[in-house]
Write a structure and sequence with these properties.
mainly alpha; 4 helices
Length: about 70
């Protein structure tokens, strides 16, 4: 596939976009099993809970964090 792209980066981008669209169609037509859907739902809930805990444990404000990062 890389060889088909040739020297022009635009051709490569077009090939990758076409490949992505093929993948989208492939997976959209098949859907998820109910077991996979349930698994993803559980992981979503767990991820949101973990993010809330992480944000609640912050000891400085976002503005203070930015100031520290920009001072480096």
């Amino acid at each position: 596939m890389m060889m088909a792209a040739g020297e022009n980066g635009d051709e490569f981008i077009d090939l990758m976009l076409a490949q992505a669209k093929l993948h989208q169609t492939y997976f959209s037509e098949r859907g998820l099993s109910s077991a996979m859907e349930a698994q993803l739902q559980r992981e979503t809930i767990e991820s949101i809970q973990q993010q809330k805990l992480l944000e609640a444990s912050d000891v400085i404000s976002f503005e203070q964090f930015l100031a520290q990062q920009n001072a480096r």
